[in-house]
């Protein structure tokens, strides 16, 4: 019966220790779960702010891309309009050039016609002069001939008819020549009229061509000025386009950097997500372990409860058992030195208690409520612990570090309640005041309660 209760007690102590360490471990795990939860919240918060930042960057990239498309569209439209206008102006200029060339050719043709007409007129004038000279000669010759004929008519009447015939022939020839002369004169007049007309026409053409040329030159000047303005505007637009291209390039560069940053952030987010997942996994494992430990704790608690119940039952058994095993136990009402306490026990037919088994140590430890003397000392010889019946100590239930014979003056042994039942002995000076546990033989009828 005693051995069984002792084993239960041992088991109960071990369970108590296990329970304490498990409690401690549970607290540590709970703290670790709290820390991990806080760390997880921090990671989630970081992840949210990174997601927000990523969204803002994406919105900015979209805006920049839209602005770039608008600028490109505007520049393309403007460039197409300018190219169309330059093509139109170039075609118009070519038409004007063709017209100037045609007019120049026409003018050259007219000049050539005019020159040939002038040459023809000169030749006609020369011919008219020659015919006139011939006529004069003929007149002169005819007058001379008439005179000679008149003179000779008289003399040459025979010859007169011949000469008359000849004169008639000559007169006819003369009429013919006169007619020729008249027609030539008429022709000359017509030619002169035509020359005048041609001259007037030439002057008009020259005036018209000069006017036309001046207008064309003015228009060419205007067109050249306008072309220069367009060239300036094209140059400005080209410069503006280069500036926009430069802006676009820097924006593209910035966009690339942003994309790189987004990629880095995404990788970092993936890493964080991975960390978060592993932490979540670890948290789940810890929760599982906490659940297991809680279940184990509940089992231990149940076992502890049943053990406590058993302990209570056993405690009710102890006085009876103590009485059977050791006889009666009692203490003094006053605090005394070890020697005075022993004397008190002797005065009451007992002696200070001898504890020579583990079961008795447990029973006594469960009963004491204050520091008490027991019947053990090394007063006779330092380090040689001896019971009051002069038997030598075989098994001690010392507190950790005891006996230490502090100041070389600790020779009497006490039990300190509250320490583990099997480790609660201490040596201290014998003059210290304690109650002592007295133990009678089982034959002594009267017992005192030491509690
Ligand atoms: Ca000592
Ligand atoms: Ca001591």
Automatic annotation (TrEMBL):
SMART domains given in the database record: CLECT
Record has Phosphoprotein as a keyword: no
A Pfam family: Lectin_C
CDD domains tied to this protein: CLECT_DC-SIGN_like (cd03590)
Gene Ontology MF annotations: carbohydrate binding
Keyword Plastid among record annotations: no
Coiled-coil stretches: 12-324
PANTHER family attached to this UniProt entry: MANNOSE, PHOSPHOLIPASE, LECTIN RECEPTOR RELATED (PTHR22803)
Protein name from the UniProt record: C-type lectin domain-containing protein
Native organism: Onychostoma macrolepis
